[in-house]
Amino acid sequence: MESLVIPALILVVVAAGVALAARAVSRRMAGRSGQAPALDPVELARAASARLTEDQHRRLYALIAQGQAMAAIKLYYESTGDGLRASRDAVGALAAHPQPYRSPTAEPVAADPDDDDVPQRFPYRYRAIASKGDVTREVSSNMLNDEIYGRIRTLARSGDAEGAANALTRHSDISLKQAREFIALLDD
Q1: What is the value of pTM for the model shown?
Q2: Helical segments of 114-174, H only
Q3: How far is residue 121's CA from residue 93's CA, in Å, rounded to a whole number?
């Protein structure tokens, strides 16, 4: 009988530990249910951009382009009054998904996502860098963004180097020869 006392005590202690852990997890989940659901990064970037004035928007993207993330977060924090975590998330979303400035009175314009003939000018400069071995090329343009550059990379990697070079020329101020050199570094 004495040999069963120690295993029984261990079993009681383990059961109590599991019960306490389950209670702690349920409290955390109950606390989170009152929070707003997280926005996807594109929606977060749109919402964050809408909260900025034109001057704040321009200064924020200048800081992002210079790689000064902390200064960009501080600017957003001071401009909007959001918390530090919210400001960090907003600046990260704005950096990953650049947004053009839209005045609060401007009507939203539905853009055709396949319309690459008329490039839109953004209030920031987008930098695309490609390298292979010792060769590095950079294209900096205010007519590029992640989406357009992604399409150009997809064209290059699918074997349509000429189409990718033409698209890059249309969305930047470089020559077709320079675009071909840049695309040649992407087609691997």
Answers
A1: 0.42
A2: 146-157, 161-170
A3: 20
- Neighbour tally for 57: CB within 10 Å: 22
The length of the chain is 188
Please enumerate in sequence order all residues whose Cβ is within 8 A of that of 166, keeping only pairs 6 or more positions apart, or say none: 176, 179
Tell me, rounded to whole angstroms, the distance of Cα 20 from its chain centroid: 39
**For 33, phi and psi rounded to 5 degrees?**
-65, -20
Give the number of other CB atoms < 10 A from CB of residue 84: 11
Task: Report which of 106, 48, 128, 112 is spatially closest to residue 81, judged by C-alpha positions.
Answer: 48
Q: Dihedral (C-alpha) 153, 160, 164, 156: value to the nearest 10 degrees?
A: 20
**pLDDT tens column, 80-106:** 988 999 999 999 999 888 888 887 765
Other Cβ atoms within 10 Å of 161 Cβ, number: 17
Phi, psi of 127 (to 5 degrees): -110, 125
All structural domains of the chain with their residue ranges: 41-96, 126-184
Local confidence band at 187 (pLDDT 50, 70, 90 cut-offs): low
